Amino acid sequence: MARFLLNYNAFLSNVKIIISVLIKIIYMTNLDLTKYGIKNVTNVIQNPSYEVMFQAEMSEKNEGFEKGTLTNTGAVAVKTGVFTGRSPKDKFIVKDSITENTIWWDGTINKPIEQNVWTDCKELVQNQLSDKETIYVLMHIAAQTKILVLRFVL
Q1: What is the DSSP pairing of strand 134-142 with strand 43-46?
Q2: Distance (Å, rounded) from C-alpha 73 to C-alpha 94?
Q3: What count of other Cβ atoms lies within 10 Å of the Cβ of residue 34?
């Protein structure tokens, strides 16, 4: 057991070093979204300030679900339609040889999907984010493992 923990801790240490290097590389270079299948974006704004996001959310050009409304507390509210928030019951994971024995497949929270379903969803997102004038990319560190997560906001 001690050997396993030693190897696991060494592994986590190496992962943290790799992630910190990747974060530095991303911050130092322009983010190329084409490697993620997102094409024809005129402006990619990384880690915008609150003021920049506020102006973008309140822009007169916004329509429909993009349109923000200033609340009496000074926060911006955006109508999302019937799809509000995230649900823990909407967690789908590709079931393959890697995840088959590493995910708790209870059928309620972790629901298996086929690779082709994931590919279709990914293509849908890539098409939705492509051909935009501006995309805001927020870099976040998530969870205790400090894994880099990219969140795209239109």
Answers
A1: parallel
A2: 42
A3: 10
